[in-house]
Design brief:
two-stranded antiparallel ribbon; Macrophage Migration Inhibitory Factor; isomerase; 61 residues; EC 5.3.2.-; alpha+beta; 31% helix; elongated; 4-OT-like_dom; two-stranded parallel sheet; isomerase activity
Length: 61
Amino acid sequence: MPMISVSMFLGRTAEQKQALVREVTDAFVRTCGGNPEGVWVTINEIPAEHWASGGTLFSER
């Protein structure tokens, strides 16, 4: 069973997250085959002050 992990900033609605996991699952099944029930998706919501790029926190941008 595949496990797909998505990391993103806080702030999406439950409806947006549901649409995301549906689309990610569908994309996996379409491209790699398998059964949707066997695809696991986790969402890791990260505050902007815990994420950085180029030495700068996103909360400082």
